[in-house]
Specification:
The protein is of the alpha+beta class. It contains 11 helices and 6 strands. Pfam families: Glycos_transf_2.
């Protein structure tokens, strides 16, 4: 592609390409991604169906802003500008409407300098029937769902991090006090059954956090996330920490196994050693999760090249 910047828009005469001056000015100020905003500009009467104007676009824009801490006002605006370098690094894959969300989401992941400019949205020329109307009343819903799917794919860690922390914390809150033995709260007795349930919560929470971490590395266009995890989980420290946790877990589980063998391979009476054995199993599972996730994050760093910005063009 020749040139430094691209300004794009729907070729249906609903966008006025004579008004590209704000886009050019934004590029000159150093922005790589310039979104048009129909809501900050003007919308001609009957240019946008009420369902799109007051429900669909505001809702999906709000969801995206909540998921990615962004401040867009109109993520579906068809008129937008992007630098050629940023577009090439985006490596867009969508085949339909969802390209709009993919472009916005990747601009966030890539930490592109982004701004919005007001644009004027015009109604369809006389005699033209929009493709939305030609495809039937279900098409806007299908388009909206495809956009949501793109958000879920590129931002699935949003649904994993806080639930993961919550489940892990809840599991530990239940497990740790039970290491001292069964306890009763408000007439409800908590023993080894509660310990097993708590371990399941903790393991589920950890699995969600590990998946979120891997997802963040996959969609890391800057290299910052990869570097952060490598500092948090140094290779040698991860290996030795995992080995120590496995050995500690085995030591905690041995007394229960010894009682099991000594009892003729029958489960002994449930006691405090059962709780410690469950905690030991949790340590072993945690050690393997940390070790494997550390290896995967480093492998992804090798396999997925970081798409860095191109150097400034001469002249």
């Amino acid at each position: 592609m020749r040139g430094k910047f691209i300004i794009m828009g729907d070729a249906d005469c609903t966008y006025d390409f004579r008004q590209i001056a704000p886009f050019i000015e934004a590029f000159r100020k150093g922005f790589d991604f310039v979104m048009g905003s129909r809501f900050k500009g003007s919308i001609e009467d009957k240019a946008m169906p009420p369902l799109h104007r007051y429900f669909g676009t505001p809702l999906t824009t709000w969801i995206l802003n909540r998921m990615f801490s962004s401040r867009f006002s109109d993520i579906h605006c068809g008129m937008r500008g992007i630098s050629v370098d940023a577009l090439l690094r985006m490596d867009l894959r969508s085949q339909g409407w969802e390209y709009a969300s993919e472009m916005v989401l990747k601009s966030v992941h890539m930490e592109l300098p982004t701004t919005e400019v007001p644009i004027h949205f015009l109604k369809d020329p006389e005699g033209r029937l929009s493709h939305m109307k030609r495809r039937g009343w279900m098409e806007p819903w299908r388009a909206g769902w495809r956009n949501l799917q793109a958000m879920f794919v590129y931002g699935f860690d949003f649904f994993l991090i806080w639930p993961g922390f919550l489940l892990l914390a809840l599991g530990l809150i239940i497990m740790l006090p039970l290491l001292a033995g069964p306890m009763s709260i408000g007439g409800v007795r908590f023993s080894s059954n509660a310990m097993l349930f708590a371990m399941a919560l903790a393991v589920l929470g950890q699995s969600m956090l590990v998946s979120a971490a891997i997802g963040r590395v996959i969609f890391d266009y800057s290299g910052h996330v990869q570097s952060r995890f490598e500092r948090l989980l140094p290779y040698n420290a991860t290996i030795w920490g995992s080995v120590v946790a496995v050995l500690a877990g085995v030591c905690l589980a041995v007394p229960l196994f010894d009682s099991y063998v000594g009892n003729g391979y029958l489960l002994p009476e449930i006691g405090i050693e059962t709780n410690w054995a469950v905690f030991g199993l949790w340590l072993i599972i945690t050690a393997f999760q940390i070790f494997i996730s550390g290896l995967m994050i480093r492998a992804l760093g090798v396999m997925l090249p970081i798409k860095k910005p191109a150097p400034p063009l001469a002249g």
